[in-house]
Design a protein that fits this description.
This protein is mainly alpha-helical and 435 residues long. It is built from 21 helices and no strands. Helix 10 runs parallel beside helix 12 and helix 14 runs parallel beside helix 16.
Length: 435
Amino acid sequence: MAAFPHSPNQAFRRLRGTRSPAEFAALVRRAARDIGETVSCDARYIGRVEAGEIRCPNYAYERVFLHMFPGLALTDLGFSPREAVRGRAAQRTAHSRTQARSKESDVQRRAFMAGGSATVAAATLGLTLFGDTRRLPARAGEPEAAAVEDAVRRIRLLDDRHGADALYRRAAEPLRAAYALLDAGAARQSTEDRLHAGAGELALSVGWLAHDSGRFDDARSHYAEALATARVSGNAALEAHAFSNMAFLARDTGRPRESVRAAQAGRRAARSLGSHRLLSLLALREAGGWAGLADRRACEDALGRAHAEFARGEADADPEWMSFFGEAELESLEARCWAALGEHARAARHARRAADLQDPHFARNVALYTAELADDLARAGAPDEAAWAGGRVMDLLADVQSTRVESMLSGTARTLVPHQRSPRVAAFLARRAMA
């Protein structure tokens, strides 16, 4: 039987206005957080809604959309009535699933309210991914590909809110499941392509958790796995992402020349993708490598390219994983370049802007940027300001667990020891020692 053609959802398209699909998806995710929901909305989902492929959203999205547009019904948003889309049996199934989902959401919300730690976040992670990997199907289909993609989004969300340390071990299980699905194969090439892309992105996400928690050898292994997956499947976007992470890791582990080469390889892979923001990020990765080599001229050239590409704005081709990369991250990466070149006062100006610009929902990044600011201020000869920023980081560490941030804060404390006659510095050092 032939499928009925989809009618574009013009009402929903009008609500998006002048925002790009990626920008509108970010607003949807923010609205979901405001009401305690979890939706994995991206530019692709918005495109499917506007194309009419999604005639009626699931219950989680329904609550979010009605929260965003008070006074409007689903039909006002261009959707079909739920009873027109699903039969009675489907409605009963959907109701059962919604009850289960609601219970799960309640459990997670209560856990976060009671604990508020990354350890609790890690415990809830298992509720939302694959579950028992022994029950994987013999052949992967669209639901399995979607589950891999959802795993990536949920891991990134939890990392943004709570940091990497307690998530890493738990996140390795869905990664094994994703590659088991790849080994099993898929009935359709389009599904297999999605599985390759999803498994590669999942390897990068788990690699980042290892990277941020100081497990550098594990991170290098996961990044290499993602790069191999990209090469096997001919996925230039995944290849560019892998090289970006490898450049970052090389810089963090004292291999600046490797960082430069990885960033340049990522740029070659990204040239045909149409994302200026991705090219901007790769130029910043390259700048960080040049700074590590103390090549100021090459660093400034790469920074200039980064700013020029960033100024060209967002595009529909921007990868979903780059949702973290805005003006705040650009300022932070530039601050690290100036710090590596020994210009700590200049670095502090950029780090301060990064902390001020960062969306407070991304608690881990707020803590990171503020820790960078504290370290730059300490090295720039502003100990009291550094102690204040360090105290702010310690406040944030109640909800964030990140070895990277902890390590930076320890370095700042060591730098401030000669200034402990200052009451503010002494108070910070005492608090740090007790922690």
